[in-house]
Task: inverse folding
């Protein structure tokens, strides 16, 4: 590796780092403002807070329902992620290994269904859920999120499975496995990274989702974080210190998740969109 | 491309597909059909008992509605601009990231953050950052003497459009970047090096090796992102609510306003059906472009 | 083309299979869920005669009326009720304002409405038109018998009726007022405007100093109120007697032309189209404008972060119209309502009565901007400040709601509020559209959305 190449590499590193910082300016502001009092924020005198004052955090953690919302978000996100992974894997496998008119039609219709703006199926959807007793419950939202994730998940899984030669299942079946057994014992373990990335996507979507949550979860005990944060914005003014603190806390799990799991995201998108 | 063994369908396939189908029926299909039916009525949320079947009257009214055409135009500008620009940015970053170096993972996750954070959080933060009273951006620009009056990011149609597109690009580019990076990494390294040895410069590399490899990813990516942009409610709503004076009102916002603030649910439903039809055709356009680009050139 | 057709056919095939299956269930339309007809049924408690051993569950959806301190105060108040009424257990739910009307309407349509709620000013009327609100006349009767009925401000209860029934108990009232910078007017020798026409001269003088006349929060729902207040104090109105929109009424057009004139002369602060309530107030505090049309005491609560401003701002008397006459200005009343779907109407009403009588703490601890509707509350030393005095003595007695011209509110007023038609009108004027064009657009939008002639 010659000298100019290394300098070139360093240059790129610096450039990317600068871009990363610039792009995350809003996030930085959110973080820094969470340590400021409301008047400090409004006066906008300095970028950095006067001190690492944790008052906002203490207030949010102790005096609001934040912990409850956190719990709800975790339950809903984890459950819908698990469901998405399972149902998506089953469906993706079926579409990958089998063919007929109906299956093709279903595969094609996934994209179309993805396009429909959910906001307007609200009333009929709500009524459907009410008949099934699913409104105001975690289960209803979990099912909703799972379904919302489905097209993308099935797509990705189909891609993963397509990339795995069928010979492996055949070999397993010769050895005595059933069709489903070969799926479960041989193929599924091979999609480890793929599954991880599906899981991360599903978790992300469920954690961040606002509109459906605010409509289907009205019970104060059932609110998730994005909805709960809105209650800090009352009809007339905003309480920026507390909003920023709760925003930071809400974003923290996502950031950590990314730090450890972003490897899988890239692998997943590889399998999903490249082979798509 | 790849060999797929298509087996005869048996019960197992349908069984495995069953949960997905059930959910899709219950959560997407039935409400969608209900929405279709709604678009043929004059359902008003305030007086549901008085609903009448009106056939295609809503659609006819749509074609004559200035608000609809304006919103369509805004939707086109918003989606095309944000998708194209975030694609270009994503591509540039992907090319830069496409070498192994220390700290790449960390940088990559930092660059991914705008996509990952809840829009309910980021939109509010941007509204705060860009306001003209104590917003950080204006404060910095004023202090650096780049401007001598605060920029009104939300006050005029042009600037408001700029702002919502800017935020959308900010939220979008990471997904583009990661997808394209994945696409880049499937390019055979040997092919790459062989071309370099043969004396290909950067531009030729890009055009003859990189770009063709990226076409499949690009098509899927653009379709998906375009769909998301057209259906994107939260970004615009939380920033400008479609204002000022409807200058950032896309079809989705119009439909929402008509349905839930104006209670004209039937009419609003017809707008979404039209949106769906348009998206369907655009999806087809992209797919045909892909097959032509890959096979028909 | 063939691939396209194939794909399309595939989806149509899939859909048609499902369409045939769903045709039957499609008839389960929303209206079969909610009780029919417009007149709310008189309260009748249902079947079971035995007193329940378990406390009766009441669900109360309360909007967010103030900062987190309000939610705390409300939770405390609820706990106190639960403690002193062991046979009833109220679950308090803080409901965000985002999408609020649609949340309630959806809940009503699907049979999952709460027992009690507060809401937007016209919400009870909009929902009563859907048959969703229970009459509260029995509470009024009880107060009358107890002799406490006239604790309420005069004329505050009557508009919250529908077809002869009391459909809500008002609990807070807010008036739209003009704040002004006493120091800026003094420094520049500008007298406080007495009529709408006086603003022109003031604007010209201020412009020389580079100060704007008005800071409008036109990017927010209060933008509609700014417009409507200007119309009302000029003698305009929102609806004609037959409930058709009066958008194009000559008195209203005068106001649109006046605002367009102000815009042309550069009297309106530049950022107004995008300002929300808070930002508009901040601009006003920062001395960029001399007048701030706003809601009751809200700017004062914002000013707490900038205390040096507090003694520079004041509320001016409501200006007279262009014809020199003093017309009633805009006010809002928010009420508590009970839902006819409730399975425990008697207990719900008991709670509402108690809440209305004991909610002073919401004001004293909850940092609300509006004022209570009970004279006894207003007499509390907490309200002994100049702003409250001014509002109650000078402004409130001469105010009217959107129902200008009618004795009660009505659902279309709620639609007007929700549709933000007048906010759009103001924004259009601020962006330079001609008054005729802007007014026509508003008129057509309103007709379309209220299904009115």
Result:
């Amino acid at each position: 590796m010659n000298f100019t190449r290394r300098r070139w590499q360093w240059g790129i590193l610096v450039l990317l780092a600068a871009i990363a910082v610039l792009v995350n300016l809003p996030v930085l502001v959110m973080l820094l403002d969470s340590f400021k009092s409301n008047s400090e924020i409004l006066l906008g005198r300095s970028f950095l807070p006067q001190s690492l004052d944790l008052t906002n955090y203490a207030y949010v953690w102790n005096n609001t329902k934040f912990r409850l919302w956190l719990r709800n978000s975790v339950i809903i996100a984890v459950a819908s992620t698990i469901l998405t992974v399972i149902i998506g894997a089953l469906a993706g496998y079926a579409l990958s290994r089998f063919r007929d008119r109906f299956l093709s039609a279903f595969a094609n219709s996934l994209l179309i269904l993805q396009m429909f703006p959910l906001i307007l199926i609200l009333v009929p959807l709500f009524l459907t859920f009410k008949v099934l007793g699913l409104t105001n419950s975690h289960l209803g939202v979990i099912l909703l999120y799972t379904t919302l994730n489905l097209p993308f998940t099935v797509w990705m899984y189909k891609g993963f499975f397509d990339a795995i030669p069928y010979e492996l299942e055949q070999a397993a079946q010769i050895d005595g496995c059933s069709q489903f057994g070969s799926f479960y014992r041989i193929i599924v373990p091979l999609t480890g990274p793929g599954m991880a990335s599906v899981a991360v996507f599903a978790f992300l979507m469920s954690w961040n989702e606002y509109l459906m949550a605010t409509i289907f979860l009205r019970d104060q005990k059932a609110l998730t974080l994005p909805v709960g944060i809105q209650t800090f914005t009352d009809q007339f003014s905003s309480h920026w210190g507390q909003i920023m603190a709760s925003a930071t806390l809400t974003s923290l799990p996502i950031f950590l998740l990314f730090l450890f799991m972003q490897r899988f995201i890239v692998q997943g998108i590889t399998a999903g969109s490249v082979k798509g | 491309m790849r060999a797929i063994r298509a087996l005869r369908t048996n019960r197992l396939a349908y069984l495995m597909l069953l949960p997905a189908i059930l959910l899709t029926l219950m959560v997407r299909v039935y409400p969608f059909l209900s929405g279709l039916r709604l678009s043929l009525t004059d359902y008003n949320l305030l007086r549901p008992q008085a609903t009448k079947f009106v056939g295609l009257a809503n659609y006819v009214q749509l074609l004559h509605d200035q608000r609809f055409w304006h919103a369509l135009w805004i939707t086109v500008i918003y989606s095309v601009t944000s998708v194209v620009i975030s694609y270009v940015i994503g591509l540039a970053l992907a090319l830069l990231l496409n070498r192994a170096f220390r700290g790449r993972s960390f940088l990559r996750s930092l660059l991914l953050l705008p996509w990952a954070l809840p829009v309910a959080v980021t939109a509010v933060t941007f509204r705060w950052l860009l306001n003209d009273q104590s917003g950080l951006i204006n404060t910095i620009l004023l202090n650096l003497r780049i401007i001598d009056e605060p920029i009104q990011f939300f006050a005029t149609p042009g600037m408001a459009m700029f702002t919502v597109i800017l935020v959308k690009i900010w939220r979008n580019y990471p997904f583009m970047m990661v997808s394209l990076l994945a696409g880049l990494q499937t390019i055979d390294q040997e092919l790459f090096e062989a071309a370099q040895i043969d004396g290909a410069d950067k531009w030729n590399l890009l055009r003859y090796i990189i770009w063709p490899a990226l076409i499949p990813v690009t098509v899927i990516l653009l379709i998906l992102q375009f769909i998301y942009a057209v259906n994107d409610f939260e970004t615009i709503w939380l920033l400008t609510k479609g204002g000022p004076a409807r200058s950032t009102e896309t079809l989705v916002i119009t439909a929402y306003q008509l349905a839930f603030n104006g209670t004209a649910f039937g009419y609003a439903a017809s707008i979404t059906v039209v949106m769906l039809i348009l998206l369907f055709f655009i999806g087809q356009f992209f797919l045909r472009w892909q097959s032509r680009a890959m096979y028909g050139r | 083309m063939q691939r396209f057709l194939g794909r399309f056919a595939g989806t149509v095939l899939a859909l048609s299979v499902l369409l045939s299956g769903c045709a039957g269930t499609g008839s389960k339309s929303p209206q079969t869920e909610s009780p029919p007809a417009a007149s709310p049924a008189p309260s009748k408690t249902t079947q079971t005669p035995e007193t329940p051993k378990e406390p009766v569950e009441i669900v109360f959806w309360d909007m967010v009326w103030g900062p987190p301190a309000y939610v705390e105060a409300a939770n405390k108040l609820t706990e106190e009720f639960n403690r002193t009424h062991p046979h009833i257990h109220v679950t308090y739910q803080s409901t965000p304002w985002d999408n609020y009307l649609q949340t309630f309407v959806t809940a009503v349509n699907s049979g999952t409405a709460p027992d009690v709620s507060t809401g937007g000013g016209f919400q009870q009327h909009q929902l009563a038109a859907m048959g969703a609100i229970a009459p509260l006349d029995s509470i009024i009767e009880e107060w009358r018998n107890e002799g406490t009925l006239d604790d309420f401000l005069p004329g505050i209860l009557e508009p919250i009726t529908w077809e002869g029934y009391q459909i809500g108990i008002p609990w807070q009232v807010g008036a739209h007022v003009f704040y002004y910078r006493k120091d800026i007017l003094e420094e520049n020798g500008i007298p406080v405007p007495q009529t709408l026409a006086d603003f022109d001269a003031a604007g010209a003088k201020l412009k020389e100093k580079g100060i704007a006349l008005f800071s409008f929060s036109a990017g927010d729902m209060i933008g509609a109120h700014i417009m409507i207040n200007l119309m009302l104090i000029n003698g305009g109105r929102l609806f004609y007697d037959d409930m058709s929109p009066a958008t194009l009424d000559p008195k209203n057009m005068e106001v649109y032309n006046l605002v367009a004139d102000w815009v042309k002369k550069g009297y309106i602060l530049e950022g107004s189209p995008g300002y929300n309530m808070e930002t508009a107030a901040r601009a006003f505090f920062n001395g960029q404008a001399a007048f701030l049309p706003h809601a009751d005491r809200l700017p004062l609560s914002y000013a707490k972060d900038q205390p040096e401003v507090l003694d520079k701002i004041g509320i001016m008397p409501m200006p007279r119209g262009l014809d020199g006459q003093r017309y009633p200005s805009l006010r809002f009343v928010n009420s508590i309502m009970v839902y006819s779907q409730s399975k425990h109407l008697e207990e719900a009403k008991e709670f509402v009565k108690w809440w209305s009588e004991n909610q002073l703490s919401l004001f004293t601890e909850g940092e609300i901007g509006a004022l209570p509707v009970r004279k006894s509350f207003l007499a509390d030393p907490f309200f002994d400040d100049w702003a409250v005095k001014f509002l109650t003595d000078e402004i409130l007695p001469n105010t009217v709601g959107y129902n200008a011209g009618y004795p009660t509110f009505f659902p279309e007023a709620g639609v007007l509020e929700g549709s933000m038609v007048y906010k759009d009108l103001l924004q259009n004027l601020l962006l330079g559209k001609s008054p005729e064009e802007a007014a026509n657009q508003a008129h057509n939008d309103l007709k379309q959305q209220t299904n009115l002639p």
About this structure: Chain A has a mean pLDDT of 79. DSSP finds 14 helices and no strands in chain A.
